[in-house]
Design a protein that fits this description.
five-stranded parallel sheet, about 25% helix, EC 2.1.1.107, 4pyrrol_Methylase_sf, Methyltransferase, Cobalt-precorrin-4 Transmethylase, Domain 2, about 280 residues, five-stranded mixed sheet, globular, uroporphyrin-III C-methyltransferase activity, porphyrin biosynthesis, Uropor_MeTrfase_CS, alpha/beta, Cobalt-precorrin-4 Transmethylase, domain 1
């Protein structure tokens, strides 16, 4: 494991966390190497690190050795801190003159409740800096060899959450979404996969539409299930996949057949040099 003293930042002038400030930083989808330099810089300075369930032990090891570590993870179906309590804890720490880092998996402003926390802080007069991170819906799929956009597949991609703020199925107009976007990237959709499947089928998406489920994205435990809309629920259960996971629906999933770069690193060969069925490259002129 890398310790906090062996990881150095490039030379240059880096911003400082002043006492009484809160930095809301994204930690990326899991792989510590996907952290931004601004986030690492914040880790080195913070007096208090308030982190969520998706922040790895390796990332925590980079923190200021004197920093207080406060766990504030939220996991569906498990006992978790209430969001209002987390936000007010940040307020209290800042008012105590601490240099506070709120570290969240992925990007804090992409289904990460970072907007709610920043809003509460600003309402209480606490200064805030936002440090974006790589979102799992982009970085996690990239690690699976799935580009969320490809000129031969889609001109739009839609990011959607699988549940609403109550934890129930998201109230999405699946019919409109099904018509408007060729590729759907669904966060936190495992629990409600059956209702998502039924909504998309009712909206006219075909049963044989490609679907990929990426669990534990970008970590050593990453698992990728390639399935279809019609069979996804049974296949997820049979594979034993568990959250956190990203569900991708659309023909972009087919690109994994040739762009699974992790398989290529293991010496495997592409399954299909032309997954979109347009003819082999030599035939395209």
């Amino acid at each position: 494991m890398t310790d906090s003293h062996s990881l150095s930042l490039p030379s240059g002038t880096w911003p400082t966390i002043d006492p009484g400030w809160v930095w809301l930083c994204g930690a990326g989808p899991g792989d510590p190497g996907l952290m931004t330099l601004h986030a690492v810089n914040a880790l080195r300075q913070a007096d208090v690190l308030v982190y969520d369930a998706l922040v790895s032990k390796e990332i925590l090891s980079w923190a200021n050795p004197a920093a207080e570590l406060v766990y504030a993870g939220k996991r569906g179906g498990k006992p978790s801190a209430k969001q209002v309590d987390i936000s007010l804890t940040l307020v209290d720490l800042a008012r105590a003159g601490k240099r506070v880092l709120r570290l969240k998996g992925g990007d804090p402003f992409v289904f990460g409740r970072g907007g709610e926390e920043a809003q509460t802080l600003i309402q209480h007069g606490v200064p805030v800096r936002i440090v974006p991170g790589i979102s799992a819906g982009i970085g996690g799929l990239a690690y699976a060899g799935i580009p969320v956009t490809h000129r031969d597949v889609n001109q739009a991609v839609t990011f959607v959450t699988g549940h609403d703020k109550t934890g129930g199925p998201t109230q999405v107009d699946w019919a409109a979404m099904g018509r408007a976007s060729g590729v759907l990237v669904i966060y936190m959709g495992m629990k409600h996969a059956p209702s998502i499947r039924e909504g998309l089928l009712a909206a006219g998406r075909p049963e044989d539409e490609p679907v990929a489920v990426v669990s534990q994205a970008t970590t050593p435990d990453q698992a990728v299930l390639e399935t279809t809309l019609g069979t996804m629920v049974g296949d997820i259960a049979a594979a034993g996949l568990e959250p956190p996971a990203i569900i991708c629906v659309g023909r972009a999933v087919l690109m994994r057949q040739v762009l699974d770069w992790q398989a290529l690193m293991r010496g495997e060969t592409p399954r299909d040099l032309d997954p979109l069925g347009r003819g082999k490259p030599a035939e395209q002129g």
